[in-house]
Design a protein that fits this description.
Elements lengths: L2 H12 L13 H23 L3 H15 L4 H13 L5 E2 L5 E2 L10 H8 L11 H10 L5 H10 L4 H27 L13
Antiparallel strand pairs: 1-2
Helix pairs in contact: 2-3
Amino acid sequence: MTDEQQRVAAFRQAFDAVHAPTPTVVDCDTRTLRIRLLREKLQEIETAMEQEQLIEIAKKLADLLYVVYGITLAPVFREVQRSNMTTVGGTTSADGKWSNPATYSPADIAPILDAQRRGRDHQPAPQSYREHQTALLRDPSTPYWVQRLLPELAQKDPVDVLGALEVLRTLMQRRFHEALRLQSEPPQEPHSMSPRG
């Protein structure tokens, strides 16, 4: 549980509000209340944005977290990020919606929530390189190719690896921008050769 979640739990306890120690679907009355609060907070955020009041926007976003906290969202966010990045290479429709390419991999949230229900999300954040590596190897959201690559990278000179990663980042950025450019260009008509006669 994050510090923010602990603070929200203390707030809910002070007001005798429903608070589950692990991810769960709350009762109907609590759902109704939270949906109403979400709508109110979103309306307040919209108003603050329309009035370009940055301080109010920040405050209302924080208020929104009071309603939504209950699930440890950091690992869920990482899994959604991993999934979202697999949409690179998709196409955009006229209404701006992004359609997924064949490489799309949907977010797998169930194992993350299961781990939280079993109390495995209360471990302290890894500090050392070895702890980070072990955590990544155990994390179900870590892509398979990264899990295969990590042990090999541990044997390499860190300076060389960072240099190689910078080259790869540049290369992948170019690939991404070229894919976007190709998607935005109209298809080329094939040139037909007419016989001279």
